Amino acid sequence: MNNYLFTPSAVYSLPVKGSDKRFPVKRIFCVGRNYHAHAIEMGRPVDKATGKPFYFLKDCSTLVDSGSTVPYPAGSANYHFEMELVVAIGAEGFRVQEADAEKLIYGYAAGLDMTRRDLQLVAREQGRPWDLGKNFEKSAVCTEIVPIGSLGVLKAGAINLQVNGVQKQSADINQLIWNIPELLADLSLYYHLQPGDLIYTGTPEGVGAVKSGDVITGHVDRVGDVRLTIGAAE
Ligand code: MN
Fold first, then answer.
1. How far is the CA of 182 from the centre of ligand 1 (A)?
2. What average pLDDT does the structure give for the chain?
3. Where are the domains of the chain?
4. Which terminus of the chain has a smaller tally of CB atoms within 10 A, N or C?
5. 97 CA to middle of ligand 1, Å?
């Protein structure tokens, strides 16, 4: 029994490879411009010597399982894929040292940071928040989580994406501008990282638009393969 006016939201969660347990998701952090070639294609090159990573968030309710079909989103005519390595946090951390970052990592996943690019760029040019472009329904696609096991802190590994079998993105995790320990150290200056937090670490170059009927497949070495089908517009 409860006295809620209506049924509360479900707990959003992801499967865990090799387990019948599920990973309950608390927050979804996303890193912007974390590969040089992508920063350049977006017209905003990054100088790590003077720059800092930046973040935006997606609501847990944006989460979609890999393998899903999602509608072409409302309000956009330029719906983009962004292939990303996702870090799943399994322990609390605040002001974490880079050397201790591994202790926070529960595991990894392969994700898509789906983006209404037209709306994001309007917001960017007008100095407004990115939510309409980034934080919309069914925009955070994620595979099952692979526990860290013997993987340790991922430093390298291929990351790539195809649309209808045609390669669009191909890069390596070793090209991250801010690597995983650097991201966890920086993000934990501003947030108390919590078990259940996901961090989408940024996309390489080659982002582009998809249309209804397209099938996106993506891969991160030793982590997994993500898949998304674009359905009809709502
Ligand atoms: Mn992204």
1. 17
2. 97
3. 13-233
4. N
5. 24
112 has a pLDDT exceeding 90:
yes
4 alpha carbon to ligand 1 midpoint, in Å? Answer: 36
Predicted confidence band at 2 (pLDDT cuts at 50, 70, 90)? confident
CA of 166 to the centre of ligand 1 (A): 20
Contacts with 8 (C-beta within 8 Å, 6 or more apart), sequence order: none
CA 33 / ligand 1 centre spacing (Å): 7
Q: What is the pLDDT of residues 169-204, one digit of tens each?
A: 999 999 999 999 999 999 999 999 999 999 999 999
Give the span between the Cα atoms of 67 and 82, in whole angstroms: 16
Ligand 1 centroid to residue 6 C-alpha, Å: 34
- Cβ atoms 72, 232 nearer than 8 A: yes
At 72, is the pLDDT very low, low, confident or very high (cuts 50, 70, 90)?
very high
Sign of CA dihedral 94, 60, 120, 65: positive
Has residue 1 got a pLDDT over 70?
no
Is 22 within 8 Å of 15 (Cβ atoms)? yes
Hey, what CATH topology would domain 13-233 get? Fumarylacetoacetate hydrolase; domain 2 (3.90.850)
